[in-house]
Design a protein that fits this description.
By secondary structure, this protein is an alpha/beta fold. The protein has 19 helices and 14 strands. It is globular and about 65 Å long.
């Protein structure tokens, strides 16, 4: 099944404007499908997949001939398998010819961590990321929550009551967003996640970095998963894993390069003198995180399960992270915490310094206490504070003061490119 992707128009525009476009993201997130769709839309171009042993052998044996043949744009899928020589040839070609639309390179490793890519193609290439599916991509209409909440600060207040229950959210977070996995039954999805992690650790990372102690990496991934959406204290990981400190840092870097881990940096605007600088760690797909923790919707539905809150935050953070890749506004994702206990789960900061602050709650009954730190942030930031939203598992949108709103979690995918109900009404024929 083909899903409409929010990044798709951005990809087409970027390939049309830049000499080289580099499309990265987790394995099985849909990069190859996007590349194929682009060539279909263009009506020309060449696709070469380096997971084909014959094509990989050709690329490594004669990188010059491999690059010089084929109609443009030349799409090289999983380019990391061919190594540095192929990238150097591409650099030479785009230095000789500065026309746009020559190469689209895809890969399941984060090329921003690969010196040969960043150094050789600096200023020559545009980098785009493809993450697993968002909830609205799954339903057929990529959402614009980020753009709407910055442009129309009260947009969330215009949403109708949600039809989703708390259990519905738990099912969605356990399903995740990998295109192949979402179509499977829970039992088959569990097996898919097991195969997925095994392939990345025991093939991709081993091939890329020559790793041999794969059991250590499996163990560390689960330890990081237990801390998803929490402040990352590396000494605690080192102590629990009982391996050398440098090994833990190296393994974390490899897991990040393979998109099994992501960091959410700490945000600071001098709101207090005691801001914490530690990052949060994030498993960038809630379904994968739930599988790593051995959690099902039924288990998470128990009031005493401590993982429910952190997995719902992981679910919301992943939705926002995916949207930043195609939002019209340039927005980055942060978190905030100080040493006195004040914290805000997620912060969206636009390039002009404006901020949308978000709390994520597992409860279905909002309280004024949820807005304690959002209120402090609003009062400190003044006009730069666009809105503070507490996302929760209830059904009603409720105002809690100036620029403070409790909204169902599905607000993240209910603000689509069609706008809110009021915006649609104002655009309709006969509207005043």
């Amino acid at each position: 099944m083909l899903y409409p992707r929010g990044i798709q128009p951005v990809l087409g525009q970027t390939v049309g404007a830049r000499r080289v476009t580099i499309l990265t993201g987790p394995r099985q997130s849909g990069k190859t499908t996007l590349a194929q769709q682009l060539l279909t839309e263009l009506g020309h171009g060449t696709l070469r997949r380096l997971d084909d042993p014959a094509l990989l052998e050709a690329a490594t044996a004669d990188p010059v001939g491999f690059v010089d043949t084929g109609e443009r744009p030349l799409v090289i899928d999983e380019v990391q398998h061919a190594g540095d020589p192929l990238v150097r040839v591409i650099k030479q070609r785009v230095d000789e010819d500065d026309s746009a639309g020559q190469y689209l390179l895809t890969g399941s490793v984060n090329f921003l961590t690969a010196p040969i890519i960043t150094e050789s193609l600096a200023g020559r290439a545009a980098f785009l990321e493809v993450w697993p599916l968002t909830q609205s991509e799954l339903s057929g209409s990529p959402e614009r929550f980020i753009d709407h909440v910055f442009v129309h600060p009260n947009a969330a207040r215009d949403l109708p009551d949600s039809t989703l229950t708390r259990y519905d959210y738990l099912e969605r977070l356990c399903r995740g967003g990998y295109p192949e996995a979402v179509r499977l039954s829970p039992r088959m999805r569990s097996r898919w996640f097991a195969d997925y992690v095994k392939t990345i650790i025991e093939r991709d990372i081993t091939e890329q970095f020559g790793l041999r102690k794969v059991n250590e990496l499996h163990q560390l991934l689960r330890l990081f998963a237990a801390r998803t959406s929490n402040e990352l204290v590396m000494t605690a990981i080192v102590d629990e894993a009982s391996v050398e400190r440098q090994t833990v840092y190296d393994h974390r870097a490899w897991l990040e390069t393979a998109y099994l881990l992501h960091r959410i940096p700490a945000w600071s605007r001098n709101l207090t003198a005691r801001v914490k600088k530690r990052e949060k760690t994030l498993i960038p797909d809630s379904g994968l995180a739930a599988w790593l923790l051995g959690k099902s919707p039924a288990a998470l539905a128990k009031p005493t399960d401590p993982a429910t809150g952190q997995l719902l935050e992981t679910f919301a953070a992943a939705e926002l992270l995916r949207q930043t890749a195609w939002a019209d506004l340039e927005v980055s994702l942060w978190h905030w915490q100080d040493r006195e206990g004040a914290e805000v789960d997620l912060i969206l900061e636009a390039s002009d310094g404006r901020v949308v602050a978000i709390e994520v709650k597992a409860s279905a009954s909002p309280t004024k206490q949820w807005f304690r730190w959002l209120t402090r942030m609003r009062d400190k930031l003044g006009g730069d504070f666009v809105h503070g939203i507490a996302l929760y598992t209830g059904r009603q949108v409720l105002p809690f003061g100036d620029r403070l709103t409790a909204a169902p979690i599905d607000a993240l995918w209910s603000l689509t490119s069609e706008g809110t109900a009021t915006e649609r009404l104002m655009r309709s024929p006969g509207a005043a």
